[in-house]
Design goal:
This protein has ten helices and no strands. It has one domain. By secondary structure, the chain is mostly helical. Helix 2 runs antiparallel to helix 3 and helix 2 crosses helix 9. Helices cover about 85% and strands about 0% of the residues.
């Protein structure tokens, strides 16, 4: 029973993390510009944030959910501003400076972890993704004991980390084929991708509000 719940949680965590949003771009960018560990720790920060929202969704903490719903626009604007700042930061980064700094003082994995955690947690709408997944799969209905919930949440975290481990590993595998010019263009492309993500998201939000 517990093993089955763990596997189900693992699958949920993995699948929710797979779509390559801004965090996916950030993980790839840090893996290319810094190291595989920098990308992996960035992904783990996102996985921790996802796990937090999975806990809220799984335990149906209605007070938090209602608060998010009531202030949904504020959260979305705040998240959009953070992502726009991230896009500018990536776009204007010089890979040569990154490489020199990393050689001189190495990478700070704790900073990679914390920054991606706060970027992800600034988008609390992830909670509704988990609510939809839990509701459609009926996974929450299988929680009959406290340890059942812990096993599922543990599975979600491990599943999310597994995806970031896989992504950073694949990017790192082909990293040796990437030169400074490619890094420079990748930073530009990654920054633009983040801006486009924010633009599309805001268009969808505005369209929904107009229809309402």
């Amino acid at each position: 029973m517990l093993f089955s719940l763990f596997i189900q949680g693992l699958v949920v965590g993995f699948l929710v993390s797979v779509p390559l949003g801004p965090i996916g771009v950030l993980v790839i960018q840090r893996t290319v510009n810094k190291s595989r560990n920098a990308g992996l720790f960035s992904g783990m920060g996102a996985a921790t944030s996802d796990t937090f929202y999975a806990i809220v969704a799984g335990f149906s903490l209605t007070i938090i959910i209602d608060f998010i719903r009531q202030h949904q626009m504020i959260f979305q604007v705040f998240g959009a501003l953070i992502l726009l700042t991230l896009g500018f930061y990536i776009f204007f980064k010089n890979p040569v400076h990154d490489l020199r700094r990393n050689k001189r003082r190495g990478t700070t994995h704790f900073q990679d972890y914390i920054s991606s955690f706060f970027i992800t947690v600034a988008n609390p709408l992830v909670i509704f993704v988990f609510l939809a997944v839990f509701a459609s799969s009926g996974l929450v209905l299988n929680i009959r004991e406290p340890d059942h919930a812990l096993v599922i949440i543990g599975g979600v975290f491990i599943g999310a980390c597994s995806w970031w481990f896989t992504l950073s590993g694949l990017v790192s595998l082909f990293k040796h084929r990437i030169n400074l010019r490619v890094l420079w263009w990748f930073n530009k492309s990654a920054g633009i991708m983040v801006w486009l993500f924010v633009l599309v998201t805001m268009i969808v939000v505005i369209t929904k509000n107009i229809q309402i």
